[in-house]
Amino acid sequence: MADFTNADLTTLAQWDTPTICNALEIVVPERRGHGFTTTPFSCLYPDMAPIVGLARTARIRAATPVDAGRGPGPDRVPYYSYVADGAMPRIVVIEDLDPTPGIGAFWGEVHTAVHKGLGALGCVTNGSYRDVADSAPGFQLLGGMVNPSHAFVHAVDFGGPVTVHGMQVVHDDVVHADRHGAVVVPAKAVTRIPEAVDLIARREAVILDAARRPDFSLDALKAALATASDIH
């Protein structure tokens, strides 16, 4: 049984991913140096609101053909069933295993429409995507690059651990993502984040209010920093 509800995930979506990372530094300080994306990516919808969901993981290849005689349709049904399984929102996290990830795009007009229809909110992948103008509206993609061809792209496996953009993810991890990147939110931290966000906002407000005043000075900054440190 999860320690959080669908409503708790919806609450987290009101804040951007950097804010979630800041809150995690308070709630789970041991996670400060890892658990988030650390390499560049391309974002399909930079102005879209953050997405939050449970991870559905897979690994793909595209540089070489899949075994001869295996058609793409039936082989994908178990994977689609896996993505569709779950009452909470889902985010697909796909690791491209090719030596040069992104040779073939797994994501495009068809797959974004199918995954959106199955209840997924988006994907984080080190692979590529295409069909930028025709992808499903509202289905977010954080990909390694944009590429015109799908080459020989095929799923190798799904449901296991993956590493994407430096972020390690396992099945059912809570993933928060937006144009800044993505972060894994430990299950035990989900319901504690709103209080941490409020604390950070109150501390930062003191400093920001001072910095934006026309008479701001070093002495004013010192006073603001002292006041902010006293906020609990």
Can you put this structure into words, describing what you see?
The structure is a single chain. With 232 residues, the chain is an alpha/beta fold. The protein has two domains: 34-185, Glucose Oxidase, domain 1 (3-Layer(bba) Sandwich); 194-229, no CATH class. It is 31% helix and 25% strand. It is built from six helices and 13 strands. The strands form three sheets. Strands 1, 2, 3, 5, 7, 9, 12 and 13 form an eight-stranded mixed beta sheet that branches. Helix 3 links the parallel strand 2 (51-61) and strand 3 (90-96). The longest helix has 19 residues, at 193-211. The two termini are 32 Å apart. The relative contact order is 0.21. Mean pLDDT is 94; it is low at 68-74.
Keywords:
8-stranded mixed beta sheet, 232 residues, alpha/beta, 31% helix, 3-stranded parallel beta sheet, elongated, Glucose Oxidase, domain 1
Low-confidence stretches: 68-74
* CATH class bucket of the largest domain: Alpha Beta
Indicate the structural class.
alpha/beta
Quaternary arrangement of the chains shown? Answer: single chain
Biggest sheet record: 8 strands, mixed
Radius of gyration: 20 Å
Order of helices and strands: HHEEHEEHEEEEEEEEEHH
What gap, in angstroms, lies between the N and C termini? 32 Å
CATH-assigned homologous superfamily of the largest domain: Ribonuclease E inhibitor RraA/RraA-like
